[in-house]
Amino acid sequence: MKRTLEGKVALVTGGGRGIGAGIALRLAQDGADVALTYLRNAEQSAAVVKEIQSLGRRALAVQADSADPAAVQGAVDRTATILGRLDILVNNAAVFLVGAVDELSRDDVEQTIAVNVRGPYVAAQAAARHLSDGGRIISIGSNVGERAVFPGLALYSMSKTALAGLTRGLARELGPRGITVNLVNPGPTDTDANPADGPNAATIAGFTALGRFARPADIAATVAHLAAPEAGYVTGAVVNVDGGFTS
């Protein structure tokens, strides 16, 4: 049986670790060749590339700072050039800076907006020039974009909420080409940056209806569905994969 993404090429920003790595691997399992970007951890990203290649897919790791528009555009263009095309963009790279509104610095604000808002916009702008008709743009938001349960989340929540507007605007603009644009909001997810056994994990899990953290594979499954041909009539949507955090 043909895999749903056979012959497709995907780029996952921040795909060298955590949720991004889970997404990159799932897209490869479904048949896509996958490029990923990373900022610092070349060794970890190389391990993800090797795992993708073990599935019989082509893979590419590109060092790119998502705060740098030229680097973001370069990663998109390099993916399309080396892997021959681009069908799926997953905007996953993000920074998570937490602090009281009167304590965060101007640099904190600039970095958050540069990576979490401008980065996805620039990536989508660059990808739109390469995406074939019927392509996919999927951004990874956050449950706190809809429900900020702790103090200190205003900056991060604002940056993730901006992705909803980007998603709806791009869905309308790119719809005539059959390109769908959607937003996935993960809830608390077990990663090295946010472990399910961390100091505040029990409290955070308690805010979900299911009482537990997600696995990266749980988020990746929804991304894979939105990337597949079967989801061709889903666009401009915000999908919460949060264990009932926002219910």
From TrEMBL:
**Regions annotated as coiled coil:** none
Q: Where is the Ketoreductase domain?
A: 8-207
Q: Which InterPro entries match?
A: KR_dom, NAD(P)-bd_dom_sf, Sc_DH/Rdtase_CS, SDR_fam
What top-level branch of life does the organism fall under?
A: Bacteria
Q: Does the keyword Cell membrane apply?
A: no
Q: Which SUPFAM superfamilies match?
A: NAD(P)-binding Rossmann-fold domains
Question: Has UniProt tagged this entry with the keyword Plastid?
Answer: no
Q: Name one GO molecular function term.
A: oxidoreductase activity
**Which keywords accompany this UniProt record?**
Oxidoreductase
Gene3D superfamilies (alphabetical): NAD(P)-binding Rossmann-like Domain
User: What family name appears in the similarity comment?
Assistant: Belongs to the short-chain dehydrogenases/reductases (SDR) family.
Protein name (record): 3-oxoacyl-[acyl-carrier protein] reductase
